[in-house]
Input
Amino acid sequence: MANIHPTAIVEDGAQLGADVEVGPYAHIGPFAKIGAGTVVKQGAIVDGHTTIGEKCQIFPYAIIGMKTQDLKYKDGSTSYVEIGDRTVIREFATVHLGTADGEKTIIGSDCLFMCYCHAAHGVILGDHVICSNSVQLAGDVHLQDWAIVGGCSAAHQFCTVGAHAMVGGMTKIRQDFPPYMLGDMVDGATKVIGPNVVGLTRRGFSKDVIRALKEAHRFLYRDGLNRTQALERVENDVEPYDEIKALVAFYRNSQRGVS
Output
C-alpha cells in the first residue's frame, strides 16, 4: 500500500505500486505509473504519461513529465517519459516529455541525475549513467550505458556520448564523444585525452583491452593520421577485441562526427 502525505496530490488514474511514498506537497498526475518502493519527495512533480520503475528516488522539487520546451510541439500530442529501476533524480532536475506523438524521453536503470540537470525531449540515457550537477542535455541526446558527464556540461542536440566514456565538467559536447574514452575542455574545444582507464579498471575491463584502447587512441589522435587512415590502422593493427570493434563502429556510424 502506498504511503501518501496528507498534503500531497495524487490525481485519479495515477497508478502507484506497493510501498510507494509520496512526500508533502508532491503532485502525481493522472497518467503517472510509479513502481513499487519508489519515493517521491517533498514538492516533486510527476506529470504526463510518465512511467517510473521500482525503488527510484525522486528528490524535492524535481519535475518529471512536463510539456517539452520544443516549439515544434503541438497541443494534444501524446508523448512519454520512462525511467528505469533504482534511478535517483536529484533536486530541481527536469525531465521533459517528447515532442512528437509517441516520442519517449528515457532514463535507464541505476542512473544518477544530479541537481539542476535537464533532459529535453527525446533524450535517452542508458543504464548506470551519471550526470553531475547542472548537466544540460538538448533534445535527442543519447548517453550510452555507464557514461559519466561532469558538472555544468552541455550537450548539443542529437549528440551521443559512448558507453563507458567520461566527459569532464564544463565541457561543450558539440559532436559525438567516443566510447571508453576520457575527455575534457581544452582551449574551448572538447579533447579526447585517452581511454577512461580508472572507470574501465573499476568495471573489470582487462589490462589487454585497456592497452588496445590506448593503441587505438594513439592512431586516432596522436599519430597525425586523418580519420579514415586512423580507423584503417585500428582495424588492421590493433587486437580485434569487442571493445575495439565497437569503437570503430561508433566512428563509422556517427551522424554528427566524433570529437
In short: Helices lie at 197-202, 207-222, 227-237, 242-253. DSSP finds four helices and 28 strands in the chain.
